[in-house]
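Input record, target 12 of the design panel.
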């Protein structure tokens, strides 16, 4: 019995190692083009299961083993990766199944140079006619505009007390501070285009920012679109909120 109990921490450590490896490799392997996105997501699913199993075995190890440090490490590693993935799943279940978010749902900013950079398998840029499931697994669909307006009520344009020229300069400066790959900064058309690449999976999301107005005031609109996937798990909306907050803060300093 004692020998069997002594194996539990070792088994727990092995399961935790598998969980962390699956979690890390799911994204890095997809980014390196070793496997497709369905395989990567299946690896995440198994990382969730094994992470939870490792945490459970780690808890048992606390009571049956003297290696408390190892047991705590197993709980942190296995439970941590499992909890992180679970939070992503829960977040995905709360937000709409859309991946194209804009501050102007009637006349969304249009991409120019980025269009040529998006592969033929990328998501459509037709916001106006796009539809999406009302929920994960549902066959009922609604327009992306309706889904966005019903959920992301805080995604709005930003009005500034500055002429379009100085406004555009600030817009471009703040965009350059976001860590995005700048693709097009056009002071004549008053648009900025950029691409943001996610850390884990290397997903590319495209951004376009548009300035309109006159010599006294301006309006800043923004659009953020994922190249692949149906749901963005709220990433594009968060990107817009983060940028707009940074822009508003910068405008108060200038």
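The sequence produced for target 12 reads:
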């Amino acid at each position: 019995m004692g020998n069997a109990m002594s194996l539990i921490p070792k088994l727990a450590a092995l399961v935790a190692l598998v969980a962390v490896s699956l979690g890390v490799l799911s994204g890095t392997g997809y980014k390196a083009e070793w496997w497709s996105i369905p395989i990567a997501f299946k690896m995440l699913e198994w990382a969730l299961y094994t992470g939870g199993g490792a945490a459970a075995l780690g808890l048992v190890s606390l009571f049956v083993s003297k290696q408390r440090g190892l047991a705590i490490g197993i709980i942190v590693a296995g439970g941590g990766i499992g909890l992180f993935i679970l939070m992503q799943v829960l977040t995905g279940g709360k937000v709409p199944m859309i991946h194209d978010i804009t501050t102007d749902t009637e006349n969304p900013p249009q991409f120019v140079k980025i269009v040529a950079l998006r592969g033929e398998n990328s998501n459509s840029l037709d916001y106006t006619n796009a539809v999406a499931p009302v929920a994960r697994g549902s066959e009922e669909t609604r327009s992306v505009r309706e889904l966005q307006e019903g959920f992301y009520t805080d995604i709005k344009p930003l009005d500034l007390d500055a002429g379009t020229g100085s406004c555009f300069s600030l817009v471009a400066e703040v965009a350059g501070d976001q860590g995005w790959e700048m693709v097009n900064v056009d002071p004549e058309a008053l648009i900025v285009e950029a691409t943001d690449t996610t850390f884990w999976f290397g997903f590319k999301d495209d951004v376009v920012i548009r300035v309109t107005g006159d010599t006294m005031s301006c309006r800043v609109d923004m659009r953020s679109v994922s190249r692949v996937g149906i749901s963005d798990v709220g990433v594009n909306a968060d990107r817009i909120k983060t940028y707009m907050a940074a822009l508003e803060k910068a405008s108060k300093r200038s």
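The CA atoms of residues 63 and 71 lie 9 Å apart.
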